[in-house]
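Aim 2 progress update. The chain analyzed this quarter is reproduced below.
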Amino acid sequence: MSKEQSLSEITSEIILSSPRIVWNETYFPFEILTTLHAIFIAYRYKNNLKEAKVPWLQGLFAVSVMGVGGSTLSNILIGKPPGWLTSNSTMTLYWTTYLLMSYFPQFYWLIDMLPSNLLNLIFVTADGMVRAIAICSSGVDNVRFGSFHGIDNKSMNSSWVAILICGSLCGCGGGILDSTFRISSPTWTFSTPTAFIKPSYDMKISFFIALFYALTTTTSSDEYIDTRFTIPLFSINQGRTLAIFGMIILKLAKMIDFKEKIPEQEKAKMKEN
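Predicted C-alpha cells:
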C-alpha cells in the first residue's frame, strides 16, 4: 500500500467513524450526528407548520417519516427490517427533539437565535452525511452484500435495478412520502408526488451518488460481488467518504444558488410594484 493510499484510508476511517461519536458515554450516550439531524428535521417541521398545532402522535409520525422514511422504504422492498428498529437511540432522539421543539418554545428560540448561515451550514452538513451514509450502507451495500430469504442471493446482489432504486430511496424516500401525503403540513392529503412530475434536486443527487458509489467501489473479496459494469476505483471506505463529501458539496451548491436567486426575485417584485 502506497503512502497516498494509506493516507486516504486513514482519512476515510476517521470520517466514517465520526457518526458513531456520542456526546457522553455515561450521561448522554447518543450520537452527535443523529442529534443534529433530529434537530434539523424537527426545526424544519416546526417552520413548515408555522402557527398550526397538530396532535402529538401526528407530529411524531411526521418526523419519523422525514427522518428515516427513505431507508425504511428501501428495506421494505428487499424484505429486511430497517436499522432504526434495532437501535434504542435513533427514534428516541427524533421523538424527543420533536417534543422539545413543539412544546418548549425556549428550545426552538435557542436554535433559531443562531446565525442563519451557521445554522444552515450545520444542518446541510449533518443532513448530507446522514443521506450519503444511508445511500451507501442501507441502500447500495444492503443489496450488494445482503442475504435474502427465498431468493437467489447472487441474482439479488448483482441487480442494478435493486441497487439504484434502494440507494436512491435512502437519499430521497422521505421527501417522496412527504410530497405524496403532505406529511409536513397540518392536514394530510394524497396527491401525485411532485418528484414524479418533475424530479426534485434531492432525487437527482441521490440517484447520482448511488450510481457513482455502486460503479466505482469494490471489496477485497469477490465472495459476494458479481455485479457487472463496475469500475473498481475505490475501496468501500473511500467510496463512502467521497459520497459524503459529494452529497454535502451538492447540497451546499443548491443552498448558495437559492440565496443568489433571492435578490433577483426581490428586484422583480419591486418592478411589479
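The chain has one domain: 21-117+125-264. The longest helix spans residues 236-272. These observations will guide the mutagenesis experiments scheduled for the next reporting period.
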